[in-house]
Specification:
Largest sheet: 4 strands, mixed
Radius of gyration: 20 Å
CATH superfamily of the domain at 1-148: Winged helix-like DNA-binding domain superfamily/Winged helix DNA-binding domain
CATH architecture of the domain at 1-148: Orthogonal Bundle
Shape: globular
Distance between the termini: 40 Å
Order of helices and strands: EEHHEHHEEEEHEHEHHEEHEEHH
Helix content: 25-40%
CATH class of the domain at 1-148: Mainly Alpha
CATH topology of the domain at 1-148: Arc Repressor Mutant, subunit A
């Protein structure tokens, strides 16, 4: 089964655990995976049988590839994406609990359609719950807000800020930031980290997204240990995300056989819509038997 992205389907929805996962995608690979994620339907069950079509022209429009080499670059990015791993950290009972770390790939297969200048991506089964089963902790944004970015660090920073959109500020530990960006031994000095990672990322967010961001640092003793970001919507783009995207998942939407508002009211902390629906269905069936 294959699906392609209609022009209006540009909403990216990710579990916060996926946003904060450790990986090292290039900007081209990031845009490729986001173009596929934007096609995932949140109002129906998805399986790893579904393939999502991304065309070379679509990626060229996002600035991911040179115009005269779109398909070749798309194939190269796809091949590299297939090899990329991702580490997803989950805290089953809150931040105080011992975490679980899932090591998986982004995709399990890629089909090249050479005569059409397109590829079909099949997500890895273990990644699907972080894209389709919306828990209480997820973030969403318009694909257009990262499509023009030239740095993969800009995409990552934007997603980290979107998680805290309602607060307008976020502080992160430098060691943690190095881990999720998989920098390893790159840019060991804070000066290099600022010049090669933070400054390009902030510039990308300010130039291409719907946010304006400033940043500073905090020391623990004599060592810089934290980076502090403050951000706000650009003038004219102040519509809250919950209102801006209501057409995607409004309160009257039917998800897994139940109205969305009922699932929202019945959800336990950390439960996905699918899990809530299954629990309600099990309870209903048990009641019928008695």
């Amino acid at each position: 089964m294959s699906k392609s992205m209609p022009p209006s389907a540009d909403l990216v929805v990710k579990s916060n655990a996926l946003i904060e996962a450790a990986h090292s995608l290039t900007v081209a690979e990031s845009k490729l995976i986001l173009a596929a994620i934007a096609q995932v339907r949140r109002d129906e069950v998805i399986t790893d049988d579904i393939r999502y079509t991304v065309t070379a022209n679509a990626l060229a429009d996002m600035g991911g590839f040179k115009a005269n080499h779109e398909y070749r670059a798309l194939k190269q990015a796809s091949a590299k994406l297939w090899e990329q791993t991702i580490r997803i950290t989950e805290y089953p009972n809150g931040k105080g609990a011992r975490p679980r770390v899932l090591l998986t790939r982004w995709v399990q297969s890629i089909l090249y359609r050479e005569d059409e200048g397109a590829v079909e991506i099949r997500f890895a089964k273990d990644v699907l719950p972080y894209l389709s089963q919306l828990t209480a902790e997820f973030s969403q944004y318009r694909l257009q807000n990262v499509s023009g970015m030239t740095s993969s660090y800009g995409v990552r920073l934007y997603e980290l800020l979107v998680q805290w959109r309602s607060r307008g500020e976020r502080e992160v530990e430098i060691d943690w930031l190095r881990y999720i960006l998989q920098l390893e031994d790159k840019y060991p000095s804070i000066r290099d980290l600022k010049r090669r990672v933070l400054e390009p990322a902030v510039s990308d967010v300010n130039e291409h997204s719907d946010l304006t961001v400033t940043w500073g640092q905090r020391k623990t003793g004599r060592r810089v240990t934290h980076i502090q970001f403050k951000f706000s919507p650009k003038k004219g783009l102040e519509v809250p995300v919950a209102e801006a995207y209501t057409e995607e998942l409004d309160s009257d939407a039917i998800l897994f056989g139940y109205p969305k508002y009922l699932l929202d009211n019945s959800a336990r902390p950390g439960e996905s819509y699918e899990t809530v629906a299954h629990r309600l269905r099990t309870k209903r069936d048990a009641t019928k038997k008695t």
